[in-house]
What does this fold into?
Amino acid sequence: MTLEALAKRLQELEAERDSYLADLQRVKAEFDNYRKRTARDQEALVARAHERLVFELLPILDDLGRALDAAEEHEEAKLEEGVRLVHRNLAEALRREGLEEIPVDGRFDPHVHEALLSQPSEEEEGAVIDVVQKGYKLGDKVLRPARVVVSSGNAD
Amino acid sequence: MTLEALAKRLQELEAERDSYLADLQRVKAEFDNYRKRTARDQEALVARAHERLVFELLPILDDLGRALDAAEEHEEAKLEEGVRLVHRNLAEALRREGLEEIPVDGRFDPHVHEALLSQPSEEEEGAVIDVVQKGYKLGDKVLRPARVVVSSGNAD
It folds into this structure.
């Protein structure tokens, strides 16, 4: 290589090196900002998610307060109606969040049921014959298994 | 510069350039992975946050169901007791989420109160004299202003 060609190559290399260094510094700074923003975003995200659900529950708290007022006035019919309303509204609010009742009409399923007791019955062995506590799923996840009584088969 | 010195400088520069390029590629790959992981984390975070709150509300739904059973059996005392329990438990669950009742004992505050009506009273002008609907804050945020009646001063 001539001295001239070498000097030119040297200049090119310097330019390449400087360009990579500038890119590196830029990407590092972006990454850093992204990391900081993400931490802030996550807090805000959880806060907002909660805010919406808590806000939906306020009318339910109001209705319960009104039902209690009715109880104090001994307005039994109004109290009962209020409780029915609250129950329906809370169940609907939770359904909107994705809550689903676990079905109990059929055979015992260890993935979603918890057997509290097994007892003889007219139903075939392994059938769910009573529900002690309802079970619930949220999406794919079992939040709480249904607590059930299972048939151990014919008593004869 | 001698030819030899130039050649050596050229090698050094190549090494520097390659090292910056390698760093750049590594940081870019890390950034990319971080971005993907963050998106997954955020979904999981919101899901988990919701799960916990929904799970806390299940016993309240159960208690309401039991209160309704009591209503059907016309066990009025049990119904009233059940409603009182549900009201307390729901209020406590929401308090744990950071919900606070907005105080209404004092002067009208447009940041947290909504004046539905202004009417003459013995109280001084601008005092809150009645609450139509309770207001709530979640942390610093007003979820719902308290809807109040404000005194317009002495009726004389």
Remarks:
- The first helix of chain B runs from residue 3 to 72.
- The longest strand of chain B covers residues 113-119.
- DSSP finds two helices and six strands in chain B.
- Chain B touches chain A through 63 residues (CB under 8 Å).
